[in-house]
Design brief:
eight-stranded mixed sheet; binds zinc ion
Length: 1022
């Protein structure tokens, strides 16, 4: 995977990921770690520093490895989801993608584990909660996490061997990087083309205009060293890389002297150190890797640059497709406090409708949304701040620059309202208290960049130190922030203005450039070279087809899986006539509130508007507050309030489903009354009439949807393929499929939104109806009765919205908890006459790659065959589809999954289209033939269980019952069935459901122009 530097709007809220806490009863791991002494030697490492970080409930231990100088940080915390990561500073000086291709090739086998794709294989031999590898601009990181200590050791062995002792065979380089090969490798007469996993992946990545823009911006802002090149690889530069260069890059960059190790969790540090020393570090001598990145020389005057991109067929307004943004160079990210201050400052400047740049740029609708790069970015050696717009017309480009300048002047003059700063600090407090399940991983990503440049990771963890210092600085100098704006934005001459415009011929030019590159390579070939290429192509093909012996890899066994289902006690009762589920959890002083309102009475023609309603309902103002005041209160009093559309297939019947909107919010205990007051105002007196405000929101939603298609194309293909297979599938497409993307594009293009404005109150009447509602509260036991009291008040205050409206379709009533037959109920839509239909749809898109999906209607969750189909999907993905679609087909990814009563195949960023559909069919034949082993089945089970037993955050406990109607008993029955799935079961379900003609299926492809599809009348072309 390649992770590009990209600034999110709420960059400060990156802290978000890192600051998630867990309330702890005992503190044994941090306490144990506190006993370590600086200077102490443990297995070849010397302890440098031991620091308690009480705010995060952890003890940080910093060490260095005596022999190689490798750096090490351990965060001891009573969290069973232990994490390991090793990060290497990788600083390429060309755009051949060498660090990215290396990241892929080290995973093609190592000395101790000479098997292809040990990560993919370990996914099936472990109970890992996370496994991956990332290439950033200046480092490459290999993290994993697991809750099982044996598994931790297994994975650590595999990771260490892959990173430090990879085979790096030439064949791996061809497969993962690039190669010339006959289009049909078995036909020496077929034309030679470029192939390779990274080559295709980057072609896909570069077809995403937002990513292209972010990449170009970074290259131009830091033109003097490693940031001027594309670490992921520029498609046309990738074919310049040689195998020898790859090996050299590994020797220098993947050396312990250039490595930073991070471990997290409740497992003992000593054991990690011993294993890392024995299996890797003791085999190395110290080197000087010379990978430091020098500071970027500052420009004496600002610069401007321009670039082209492909036109976006889905963009809301074809005449407004330009992007422009201004970037400012900021200080070194190793200055922890300055970075903290600037990320807060950035939020104040651009986040939310109360920020001056939002007011100045978004509200006048000069563009559709902020540019893809916006706010503070501290992911590389020197930080930057960017602000600009996308969806701008050509005439307005100058205006955008002028407005940015004027707004900065105005900020220097006026500063920020005190309440906004307060709201931001409140947000930080919530983020520090909110607990996630992947705290270790968040921590690893949070410290990665600064640590990579020898910043102090421990100082970064001490966030409260920064908060205190920030408050003091503001108190000592009321103009503190204004002075920063003056210094970094007003007077800063290292500033780049980058504009991007669509070029109708862009794709053509790209294709032409690739063709020229190809021809240059091809023309230089001798007859002998061609012969070799053909032979190597055949070799690769047979290597890919050869059976793989993975037995050298360590593995857990099915018997290592916990036979018991973890249970979550909840209490379901009725408050003011509304069913409420209470779930006591160690939420660390936060209360989580959800409400689910069915939309059974909603007229069908209004359904496509539900997602839009959800997107705007908490953002238009309510009660006595305009939308700005509402946004302010939301930040001051809550951890966010949102509404989203939801379709849930019933767990027992394929033609029954629940359709609803889900309200979701959280707050600190002390703000409970405020949170419910806000919801009350949203229910009782939302503002709908501000057309200007609505237009801003509509454009942002439409733009976001259009931008997301190239990234999530597989999800859109899957949703579309399933559209006519179940009634729920049809509604999914309406709410979140290509239908919705196109619908929002049409809405955004409307001159007059009055029709929408008139419709929103109608939607509200049907959607926010306490008669159709149920609620859930997750809070600490101490806070439960208080929560219940405030919820009751809220329900009383919104009771005027209660109406007994007639459902527009037949319904059925079910208990919320299937075990409580006489308990509170919910109402589902039922359609016993439903007839599934076969349909194949092709969406022609301006992408160079395809997203392919086929979906088959099978059985619901409680059916005895569901477990077999789930294991089969996993096994088929790992043992057949991965090799067909990724290794042979050249796609970035692909597989099969079982969910919602559907068995669904998919591929991601795939150079093939129809061939992939045939690979899906061959997958079914493979399953029916039953040539897989017991080991294959066990591996698939392990992989399924690592999903089933993935940790659940306190905020989300009980949600599978509340939302999905799946009780602990049902989960347990499913668990038993998963354990029991046999070889015969798998063959049987493949015959019974997946054979051609047995069950109704659908298919969808998103991809570039395709003659074969166009000529095939069985495909509907969109
Ligand atoms: Zn990749």
């Amino acid at each position: 995977m390649w992770r590009q530097t990209k600034t999110a709007l709420h960059k400060v809220l990156r802290l978000n990921d890192l600051l998630r806490l867990r309330a702890l009863k005992s503190t044994s791991a941090p306490e144990r770690a506190l006993k370590l002494q600086p200077g102490q030697n443990i297995h070849g490492f010397t302890v440098k520093e031991v620091v308690a970080v009480p705010d995060l409930f952890l003890t940080a231990v910093k060490l260095t490895h005596d022999g190689t100088g490798a750096q090490y940080l351990h965060a001891a915390r009573d969290d069973a989801n232990n994490l390991f990561s090793v990060q290497l500073r990788t600083t390429p000086m060309d755009s051949s993608g060498v660090p990215h291709i290396l990241e892929h090739t080290v995973l093609c086998g190592s000395q101790k584990f000479p098997v292809r794709d040990p990560f993919f294989k370990m996914l099936n031999r472990s109970l890992s909660t996370f496994m991956n590898a990332f290439t950033a601009s200046d480092y490459t990181m290999y993290p994993f996490s697991t809750q099982n200590s044996k598994d931790f050791q297994n994975l650590l062995s595999v990771y260490l061997d892959a990173v430090f002792f990879p085979c790096l065979r030439e064949q791996d380089f061809w497969q993962e990087g690039w190669r010339l090969e006959n289009e049909d490798p078995t036909d020496p007469k077929s034309p030679l083309v470029f192939k390779g996993v990274v080559f295709n992946e980057m072609k896909g990545a570069f077809s995403d205009n937002e990513r292209l823009y972010a990449q170009f911006l970074q290259n131009k802002m830091y033109p003097d060293h490693t940031y001027s090149v594309v670490s992921g690889g520029e498609p046309l530069c990738i074919p310049d890389l040689t195998w020898d260069q790859l090996k050299e890059f590994h020797a220098r960059h993947y050396h312990p002297s250039n490595a930073r190790f991070f471990t997290y969790g409740d497992l003992p540090l000593e054991q990690h150190l011993q294993q890392i020393q024995q299996e890797a570090l003791c085999k190395f001598e110290r080197i000087d890797p010379k990978t430091e990145v020098p500071p970027q020389p500052h420009w004496p005057r600002p610069r401007e640059a321009h670039m082209s991109c492909g036109p976006d067929a889905l963009a809301p307004d074809q005449t407004r497709q330009n992007t422009v943004c201004v970037s400012f160079l900021l200080p070194d990210i190793t200055d922890t406090f300055e970075g903290f201050t600037l990320s807060l400052l950035s939020s104040l400047m651009v986040s939310g409708p109360n920020s001056p740049l939002y007011k100045a740029l978004i509200e006048p609708k000069i563009g559709t949304d902020f540019s893809s790069v916006v706010g503070y970015d501290g992911s590389i050696r020197e930080a930057s701040f960017s602000v600009g717009l996308q969806g701008v017309s050509e005439q307005d480009l100058e205006r955008v620059k002028r407005v940015i300048e004027e707004t900065i002047d105005q900020i220097v003059l006026e500063g920020f309202e005190e309440e906004r700063i307060e709201a931001l600090l409140h947000k930080l407090e919530i983020q520090m208290k909110h607990q996630s399940t992947n705290f270790g991983l968040s921590l690893a990503s949070y410290i990665a960049s600064a640590w990579n440049h020898d910043g102090d990771p421990v100082a970064l963890l001490q966030i409260n130190h920064s908060v205190d210092r920030f408050k003091r600085a503001l108190k000592d100098n009321p103009r503190y922030l204004q002075e920063k704006v003056q210094q970094y934005f007003k007077e800063n001459t290292h500033r780049l203005t980058l504009s991007m415009s669509p070029d109708e011929e862009y794709l053509e030019k790209q294709a032409k450039a690739e063709e020229e590159k190809l021809q240059r390579k091809v023309q230089a070939l001798t007859e002998d070279d061609r012969k070799q290429i053909y032979e190597k192509g055949l070799e690769l093909l047979s290597a890919q087809a050869a059976p793989q012996d993975a037995s050298c890899l360590p593995a857990l066994r099915v018997s290592d899986i916990d036979p018991v289902t973890a249970r979550t006690p909840v209490q379901i009762s009725s408050v003011g006539g509304v069913p409420v589920q209470f779930c006591e959890q160690p939420t660390n002083g936060l209360v989580y509130f959800r409400a689910l309102c069915n939309l059974n009475s909603l007229p069908e023609d209004l359904r496509p508007l539900v997602p839009l309603f959800c997107a705007v309902i908490t953002k238009m103002g309510c009660g006595s507050m305009d939308y700005r005041q509402q946004a302010q209160q939301l930040e001051l009093r809550t951890g966010g309030m949102s509404v989203s559309a939801l379709v849930t297939p019933d767990s027992a019947h394929l033609d029954t489903y629940e359709q609803a909107v889900v309200l979701s919010s959280s707050c600190l205990d002390r703000n409970l009354p405020h949170m419910f007051d806000l919801w009350r105002d949203v229910f009782n007196s939302p503002h709908f009439t501000d057309e200007e405000r609505l237009r801003v929101l509509v454009m942002m939603v439409a733009q976001e949807l259009a931008n997301g298609v190239s990234y999530s194309g597989h999800a859109y293909a899957m949703t579309r393929a399933a559209r006519l297979l179940t009634p729920a599938g049809d509604l999914q497409e309406t709410f979140g499929g290509m239908e919705q993307v196109k619908f929002m594009k049409r809405v955004a293009e409307k001159q007059d939104l009055n029709h929408v404005i008139r419709t929103l109150p109608r939607l509200k009447k049907h959607l926010f109806n306490p008669h159709n509602m149920r609620c859930a509260i997750n809070a600490t036991p101490q806070e439960m009765s208080n929560s219940s009291k405030h919820l009751e008040t809220f329900l009383k205050e919104v009771s005027e919205n209660r109406k007994d409206l007639k459902p527009v379709r037949p319904t059925t009533v079910q208990p919320i908890d299937p075990q409580l037959e006489s308990g509170p109920t919910k109402t589902l839509i039922v359609d016993p006459q439903y007839q599934p239909c076969h349909m194949k749809t092709f969406f022609q898109m301006p992408f160079p790659v395809n997203f392919v999906s086929q979906s088959i209607r099978t059985v619901p969750f409680t059916h005895p065959d569901y477990a077999s189909l789930r294991v089969l999907a996993r096994m088929m993905s790992a043992k057949f589809l991965h090799s067909e679609i990724r290794e042979k087909g050249g796609a970035y990814g692909g597989g099969a999954r079982m969910g919602g009563g559907l068995f669904t195949f998919y591929s991601y960023r795939d150079p093939q289209a129809l061939q992939t559909l045939s690979a899906f069919r061959r997958g079914v034949d493979w399953a029916k033939a039953g040539t897989f082993s017991q080991q294959d089945i066990d591996e698939a089970k392990l992989s399924v269980f690592s999903a089933v037993d993935a940790p659940v955050a306190p905020a989300d406990k009980g949600m599978s019952l509340f939302v999905g109607g799946v009780s602990d008993d049902m989960s347990h029955a499913h668990r038993q069935r998963l354990f029991g799935v046999s070889h015969q079961d798998l063959v049987d379900v493949a015959h019974r459901y997946l054979s051609v003609g047995r069950c109704t299926d659908g298919a969808a492809i998103l991809g570039p122009e395709n003659d074969a599809l166009r000529k095939d009348p069985s495909w509907i072309i969109k």
